[in-house]
Amino acid sequence: MMQFKESAIRVGEQALDKSDAIAKVGELLVKSGNIEPGYIKSMLAREEVANTYLGNGIAIPHGIPKDRELIKETGVAVLQLPEGVIWNNDERVHLVVGIAAKSDEHLTILSNLTDVLDDAEEAKRLAVTKDAGDIARRLSGGQDAAPAAQAEDAPEEHELGFEHVVTSPHGLHARPATALVDLSKTFQSSILVRNGNKVGDAKSLIGLLKLGIDNGATIRISADGPDAEQALEAIFNAFAEGLEDEEEAAAEAAADHSGSTEVSTYEGAAIVGISASPGIALGPVCQLKRGRIVVSEKAEGSSDEESARLDQALATAKAELTALHDDMLAKQGAAKAAIFKAQGEFLEDPELLGKAREGIAAGASAGWAWKQSFEDHASALAAMQDEILAARALDLRDVGRRLLKLLADKVEDDPDLPDSPIILVADDLTPSDTAGLDPEQVLGLCTASGGPTSHTAIIARSLDIPAVVGAGETCLALKDGAAVILDGTSGVLVSEPTDKDTDQAKAAQEVYARQAIAEQNACYQPAIMSDGHRIEVVANIGNVEEANAAVVAGGEGVGLLRTEFQFLQRDTEPSEDEQYEAIAAMIKAMNGLPMIIRTLDIGGDKDVPYLATPEEMNPFLGVRGIRLCLLRDDIFRTQLRAIFRASAHGPIRIMYPMISSMDELRVAKTITEEVRQEVGADPVEIGMMIEIPSAVMMAEDFAREVDFFSIGTNDLTQYALAMDRMHPQLAKMADGLNPAVLRLIRKTVEAADAAGIWVGACGGIAGDPLGAQILSGLGVHELSVSIPAIASVKAKIRRLSMAEAKAFAQRALACTEASEVRALK
What we know:
The protein is an alpha/beta fold. It contains 31 helices and 28 strands. The two termini are 49 Å apart.
């Protein structure tokens, strides 16, 4: 355990202002041999862009990560200011804890600081003590300061449990801790983790991080409840399998959209960052400034009334996040939507809510109590100087501000972007910020923080906005209106560009424009292999905007219309007319191209409260897809009437999801035919999804009953491998290119060929050029992919012959692991 040097602690000091306090604590670090003098400037620079105030009169100034070379030895210094100094707004600091960390050796100190943050009286005592040793012992984990009270507050361990030695180089934080929280939440039992004399809730990320679990620590995991044994077994196995090892996570990130840090070829002042989204933009700078949210410190009403206000705000914030999640799911897919799903977890975190409710009980307003809770915890996360934890801190602040606005007395100067096109510059952008960007007005993005897999990068790529991330604090000093060049391809922001720079950037823009035109023209060419075989490439869509986009992107039709999106983000079931109008609009947008309409697939990960379906232990194995439609045939018939009415506007096919038995298929077909005759519509082709192993085993029989199959590779993978694709430990192994899944696909195609029907595929691997090659070689006739993948999948197929695709598919079938398939060349 790292110990304080008492020589690095000064009690009874004074400071003129925040900058003076930071300089003085930095000088203590210099005298202790921890830092070079230049690191003090780095500490001051960080304060310009990030609030290091934790709460209860404690601040933790530290430098910018890029200046770590100025750190000679990890260390901590403390400047005690009994009279205090104003930090930000009305925040008065009495303990300035300066941190110089080359790695994560300071985590124990931060863990002890979070303990002090939970005890306002202890923080007040340390603010005036005249004994430097008292501060050293308390912040080093000593027991001199009110240990009995802490012991009383800590939850008691459960009898059933096991011990585990942490072997991860970085200890149990960041992704390992997040994975443990996600896994623990899947069980009903109470699950606790002990590290030394501290006990935390395994279902709270904050609770785990406060334990300060380092490499080599022996921890005890205990559980109590109806599924305690199963929970402990699952956690034991998760530890044995590595529990999201940090090095593996870093390797995954490096393999995904690795950024460029090329040397600038511009004459102007180059701010070098990381390429996050390619392209070049020229325009004026606009610095993103946060609004000020005003909340009263003291409650006007009773604690019960304030608690009710907090509960109402929580419900509203959760609903907003659910709507954002569903909208992003429809527009950009599950990966980007998961950002908002993860944010929702913070609104249920027992540590955060517990501290807020304690504040309300002590007389604070709901807004003030929540503000103190989320800011304290976010600052503690950000201070750990781990990239993944820093991203979590940003998420926490984002969702914290969302809830705070609902509790605010007023919101002042909420940021509004100008109407004219700009280059947006910020320390970092929250998911809420990026989701609301208008590509017509935001020409480019530059952030001081973040990386190529940050939320900013992910959403910038999806919006086709050039972006540079990780550019450092220099970009935040640029004045609004200053002309800049943002080169997202090389990862450079150029301030004060010369005429030559501007000419160079404009020439590059013209090259990009020509390439875009060429790609757009090529995307309309059919995916015909070199030996004449054709694979149809169609789109997955959920609304009329995506129908239009699919046509523009070169889609040859729609292979999957997700009708469930008409049922989400609303309080009541859509009427027949509403469904008809939505489907008809999409059919018209396709201009005669065929559309496959999947009937309602609610259940599993898509919950619709107004349908009042019973809560299920495992919704993916419960009432979902066709099962719900047959259970609620009133909803099914209404949807079918809307579909058949809309069929007058263009060619459609109907497809049933989650068919597992012949009886389900025949009943669904009977209802469909009854509705068709009621409406008086012409017959249409009827198909079914192949998503369940039982459907594969019965494929020869099913093929005689339908006109086509569509293989849902995502669900087929999770059901075939018995792996929840959202599971924190198993998701990375639920790979659609697993040979077991590929062999099921091949069996499906063989059954279809024998019956003379065609087979399509939708899901993740259909939109992956490697997956598209294998599926084509296995005999799949149609690939339904996300809209951005249409052009690349078509291009891949055009470069192949069917003979090459078949030979490659046979090699894939001969593999025994998905990793072997992905390694094929």
